[in-house]
Fold this protein.
Amino acid sequence: MTAKILDGKAIAQELRESIRAEVDAQVAKGQNPPGLAVILVGEDPASQVYVRNKKIACEKAGFNDVSMVLPADTTEEQLLAEIDTLNARDDVHGIIVQLPVPDHIDPEKIIERIDPKKDVDGFHAYNMGRLATRMPGLAPCTPHGVMTMLEKTGIPLRGLDAVVVGASNIVGVPMALELLNARATVTVCHSATKDLAQKVSEADLVVVGVGIPNMVKGEWIKDGAIVVDVGINRLDDGTLCGDVEYDVAKEKASWITPVPGGVGPMTIATLMQNTLQAAYAQS
Ligand code: NDP
């Protein structure tokens, strides 16, 4: 069997077009567009690329782009003060601080300072808590984007045995909560997990977000499983690859995400969706 492609790029495009149409309709009624503030501290090259992509998406969605780049020596107090200012602005509905921040800044302190209503990354403990208790809120973009992609593709999740590889606050943990909320049976694996190959080989659905190229071997994948690769790794030759050994895995899976063009575009589209949701909630 050769897997069908989970086409995150196409689904994200559709989602972004529907967001643009909603924004245009609101603006035509005389309302202000949603405002998104993306803050980058320093000049990390990968972060610069992510922030540029978010800015482009923001403009294409018809949002008010309030992005800012702060110097690498910005103090924690200065960054917190900037967040306080944005929290108070009526024309800013979403605030994100691109991670990682420089070492002298505590990322948790930064995330916790963002008004939960404007926390469109969904990283604040308030929003994570709402996800964990199955209450509506702003859900972390990457896992929520994965859920949208699976739903739009028509893949039912109820009752599936799901294995999530990676347990970060940004990817693995909220992914596990989303899948649990969809009534999958979820196993979460991390760096201390015993016999990862065995666990992956029992999964109907595997979601991998680790950050190690090709660490999940294609031969571990159960015949007919659904494979979602969140990993984005840049190789020495400049090309991108995921965390799953794609060429082998695609011969066993029923559905698989490509890297690039799978989860990445869904993350950005979901950020736009969260910003629109936050703007509605604040209007
Ligand atoms: P982190 O480094 O924060 O987390 C990595 C996770 O992988 C940790 O939970 C770690 O375990 C686990 N891990 C490390 N080694 C192993 C191992 N050998 N076996 C099993 N688990 C292991 O990374 P992120 O969650 O931020 O990102 C993961 C990947 O996803 C990266 O490639 C990143 O670029 C990509 N990413 C992609 C996005 C997209 O839009 N497509 C968005 C966000 C991230 P432990 O907890 O025990 O340390």
